[in-house]
Amino acid sequence: ETALLPGCPTWPEEFATRYRQAGYWRGETFGQVLRERAQRHGERTAIVAGTQRWSYRELDERADRLAAGLQALGIKPRDRVVVQLPNIAAFFEVCFALFRLGALPVFALPAHRSAEISYFCAFTEAVAYIIPDRHVGFDYRSLAEQVRDRVPGLRHVIVAGDAGPFTPLSSLYASPVELSEPSPSDVAFFQLSGGSTGIPKLIPRTHDDYIYSVRASAEICQLDGSSVYLCALPAAHNFPLSSPGVLGTLYAGGTTVLAPAPSPDVAFPLIERERVTITALVPPLAMIWLDAASARRHDLSSLRVLQVGGAKFSEEAARRVRPTLGCTLQQVFGMAEGLVNYTRLDDSEELIVTTQGRPITSDDEIRVVDEDDNEVAPGETGQLLTRGPYTIRGYYKAETHNSRAFTSDGFYRTGDVVRVTPEGYLVVEGREKDQINRGGEKVAAEEVENHLLAHPAVHDAAVVAIPDPFLGERTCAFVIPREAPPPAASLTAFLRERGLAAFKIPDRVEFVEAFPKTGVGKVSKKALRETLSRRNAVSN
Ligand code: J2J
Fold first, then answer.
1. Is residue 59's pLDDT more than 50?
2. Can you say how many angstroms the Cα of residue 176 is from the centroid of all Cα atoms in its chain?
3. Domain range for 481
């Protein structure tokens, strides 16, 4: 047994043994899963993207050839590689090539910009950064130039498409070479945390734990070889990647269709053409789909399951899914750190529309606690703590933060406020962490505050959520200016120039002279949110 990558906390041996004995961890790697599927049903279609259709055999061969080429470039097992690819077929050949090589993808989102990407590259000491040439009007090669200037350790920029000054992905296909299999208990890749701190946190996931969550999720969603999964959300996100997502579909031998955008005008023709059976959305998109589906311009009759998660889906909208789309709603309450809850396909409509589901397995330990970590009475609301066979025991290289984000006995503090129904289902009632959930996109308040504080006219800043009928929440930055307030637009432009992803730019800026304080002298974000509703009442 080899040790885990340094900087990655792991499960104590007694838990690891238990999870193996219970059959959760089976000692498989992602590379082996693909190999086995290619041998079993090589001619089935694995990936559809635009006019490309790759069979399992083709995906398998491409991964082998790319792995050889990446190795020839000098990329070694455990090297970190920041992967920022949108929903294109190359995403998956790159993933599996890296898995086979034992190199570790760091999954960035297409929306990330130079502030985030430079940080990921520097913090993980990445040797390579893999991008598309362009995507929805944005040129990732110019982003890569900025990142390369800021992170000298980055040795390679690899481009799917027109590479410009960088290395074309297409130049890397080489004759397959013999590679040693990575250890299933070692880290396979890094996911990003939604975060609640000043700097983003990285989540180490192992082959063993992630394959378990993917396999069990595929079973819960009843995926098989006839399943067709439409990947409409960005594939790098934990939800469309693993719940059961693209990897679950692959595990089951089904077909994944990659949608370049999640809008009905792009997704509906794909559902009709490819006879899609299951897809996953965040609540704002689900509402757009419900409105568009009423027009009935496309045949969506193949759709059996619509998964909605990432943020709370209102009961009102949830009730519209079956009558409007003729399929089952599945609520999914998950997190990149591990724990995923699903309503089950055969649950009563009442459970499906009023809860966020229950954990994958009874070995997902759930505790609902008060401020002093004491368990609340059954059915009462409290903070959710969890521990289990696919929930991490700590973030990558974050010892100090880990001692706060995990209990001493290894429970992850999710920061979510929930209650458990008599059926054992979770209902998300709120949040205790300092994060804004902008329609499923997570914004760590402190991260944005730190960027605002870098502006010369800003004395202090506090970022809070404001309710929004469409996104659920939007962001508002309260700013104490040093002197006369600068134009709000100059502050948001400043954040953009610093290379912050667009979804983190405050939707609204309010100038104040001081922040309301709590009893212990901390900024009261609750009082700030109330300030806003008062100001709105005055201006309306
Ligand atoms: C309320 N809040 C939710 C829900 C997530 C599957 C599905 C989602 C994610 C995800 C994921 C919610 N109702 N249905 O990784 O595999 C909020 C909670 C949670 C945080 C995690 C998956 N579903 N949330 O959203 O890491 O606050 O993962 O702690 O991006 O999203 O965010 P993230």
1. yes
2. 31
3. 435-539
Pocket lining: 332 vs ligand 1, CB cutoff 6 Å: yes
Contact 471, 481 (CB under 8 A): no
Backbone angles phi, psi at 388, to 5 degrees: 175, -175
Closest to 143 (Cα-Cα) out of 173, 171, 121, 127: 121
Assembly ipTM: 1.00
pLDDT digits (tens, 9 = 90+) for 357-403: 999 999 999 999 999 999 999 999 999 999 999 999 999 999 999 99
Q: How far is 230 from 249, CA to CA, in rounded Å?
A: 10
Q: Closest Cα to atom 28, ligand 1: which residue?
A: 335
How remote is the CA of residue 416 from the centroid of ligand 1, in Å? 10
Residues 432, 381 contacting (CB under 8 angstroms): no
* Domain-located, residue 344: no
| Residue where a domain stops, chosen among 181, 206, 226 | 181
For ligand 1, whether the C-beta of 243 sits within 6 Å is yes
When divided into structural domains, the chain yields a total of: 2
Measure the CA–CA gap between 236 and 83, rounded to whole angstroms.
9
Contact of 482 with 476, CB cutoff 8 Å: no
Question: CB neighbours of 149 closer than 8 A, spacing ≥ 6?
Answer: none
User: Is any ligand 1 atom within 6 A of the Cβ of residue 10?
Assistant: no
Domain stops at, among 155, 181, 207: 181
Question: Alpha helices of 75-233 — where are they, by DSSP H?
Answer: 90-101, 114-124, 140-150, 207-220
**When comparing pLDDT for 243 and 521, which is higher?**
243
Which residues, at least 6 apart from 165, have a Cβ–Cβ distance to it below 8 Å? 141, 145
pTM beyond cutoff 0.90: yes
